[in-house]
Amino acid sequence: MNDEQLLRYSRHLLLEEIDIAGQEKLLSSHVLIIGAGGLGSAAAPYLAAAGVGEITLLDHDSVELTNLQRQIMHSQKSVGQSKVASGKAFLENINPSLRIHAIQDGASEALLNLLLPKVDLVLDCTDNFTTRHLINASCFKHHIPLVSGSALKFDGQLTVFDSRMEKSPCYACLFSPEDELEEVSCSSMGIFSPLVGIIGAMQAAQALQVLVGFGQALVGRMLLWNALNTEINEIRIARNPECLICGNTH
Length: 250
Description:
This protein has helices at about 5-10, 10-15, 20-25, 40-50, 85-95, 110-115, 130-140, 170-175, 185-190, 195-210; strands at about 30-35, 55-60, 100-105, 120-125, 145-150, 155-160, 220-225, 230-235. It is an alpha/beta fold and about 250 residues long. It has a single domain, classed as Rossmann fold (3-Layer(aba) Sandwich). The chain has an 8-stranded mixed β-sheet with strand order 3-2-1-4-5-6-7-8, sandwiched between helices. Helix 4 (about 40-50) runs parallel beside helix 5 (about 85-95).
């Protein structure tokens, strides 16, 4: 690290769990953030500020006025722009020394097969089961740790799937791809503005833990946050031996 970096990240360097070695890991890391909406808007700025050296934003959508209630990476001037272009400009303003890539596209198997071999970790900041299953299967295939978050109304969930660990479950262990689950969205159900900030910031925290390798990440555990009653609960989740993605027979 150069003198400017030593000063910029000095508060990380004071933490013995991170120190210079950990910060250098972050500077050499590449994170893919899928979804530049509410969750991505909270997670990405913290990863950029923390010094993750390379960040790729993937989202097909454009900024709408209704997004501004909670998607803090975008502003009034961003309405009509692609979310990834707006996000890229925001992150570069926070930390201009980083490499930020903006891909305006939806997640597909072909695109993920192209991107995942080049990244160290993925954040799933999407809002539908189909895309989450696709991301999960791709991360398992390429052995890339996945930080998964979701938020709707007043409820948020957070967990980490790490296929490099033998006992780690995957998303399909919880929600089978064969299940017919009803898709719900913020546009029809509503969402409490700070909720995505809370879950997204915790996604960033989990990503930093996994990248540096300190503490105990949420592998095999799911954090449940209820903003209406200000309650935090945790449930244990185990690998399903019959899972269609990571099970013993697959």
